[in-house]
Amino acid sequence: MTAEPARIRSESVDELVAPAARRSLPAPNLGDRGALSLRREVTARLLRARAIERTPPEAYGFSVTAASWLYLITCTLYRWYFRSQCFGIEHLPQGPVMLVANHGSHVLSWDGANILSACLLDAEPPRLVHGMGHHRLMELPILGSVARRIGAVDGRRPACLSLLRDGATVLTFPEGTRALERPFRQRYQLAPFGHGFVHVAMESGASVVPVAVIGAEEEAPLLANPTWLKRLVRTPVAPITPTLLIPLPVRYRIHFGPPIRLSGPATPERVTDGVKQVRDTLIDIVQRGLAARRHVFF
């Protein structure tokens, strides 16, 4: 097994953050572009991103028409509500990519939506990112259908492998639902990672890119996660936050790390080492991103 992230640790915070500022698009006033202009841009980039994959993503429920409207919402929030900044997006390699990110959005997955929007608007070429959804969430009649239209798939291993073998980009949160139960006082303290993503990376040959998301933990602080409510809504978590469904206008900062290549047979030792390597690298980028942040909202 080989990996490349060691050089991150020798860089300063400024060196980690600054290079990608060139790649991040400016956030003009909404009136300067307008929703129609943004939708044209989103649709054009979705078509370019879709063409990268050997199997049309429609096979998984994706729809360019529906996705262009959904991405119009997420990209508008990305640019003008969260005023998101992405750093290091030039690290995205060619070929299949597995994005491995920390999870912090407690109600709706705005952290995932910001990563998807960054890869569509700020990456060159643009990438259609397929989120790996929890199978119980993907089975919900409305939320699951909307997620599939934008490119998400059931997070089980076969779908992920199939996408990566077709040259796609997938997003996984290996903390799983444990991250959504994290109290505010423990924000950005990553939970243990599952091992499935390393098995998939080794089997598919995909590059692993750690993605540190700064801002999600403050967007909707967790007050409670009652068991009775989880049973009622039939979801793995049922967070109660002071903002309900509306996130606070925090400033998102998304840091893409250098790609990690995991190779060799997926023995228990190699898998464990791979999980530790990726998790340690992501923790390091998260901490550097937090140190570079001057304010939650600015």
- The biggest beta sheet, please? 7 strands, mixed
CATH class category label: Alpha Beta
Radius of gyration: 18 Å
Roughly what is the average pLDDT, rounded to an integer? Answer: 84
CATH topology, which one?
Glycerol-3-phosphate (1)-acyltransferase
As a percent range, the share of helical residues equals 40-55%
* CATH architecture type: 3-Layer(aba) Sandwich
N to C succession of SSEs: HHHEEHEHHEHEHEHHEH
Overall strand count:
7
Number of helices: 11
Question: What count of domains describes the coordinates?
Answer: 1
Largest beta sheet: strand ordering? 1-7-6-2-5-3-4
How would you describe this structure to a colleague?
By secondary structure, this protein is α/β, with parallel strands linked by helices. The chain has a single domain, classed as Glycerol-3-phosphate (1)-acyltransferase. 41% of the residues lie in helices and 10% in strands. A seven-stranded mixed sheet has the order 1-7-6-2-5-3-4, sandwiched between helices. α2 packs across α3, α3 packs across α4 and α7 runs parallel beside α8. The radius of gyration is 18 Å and the shape is globular. The N terminus is likely disordered.
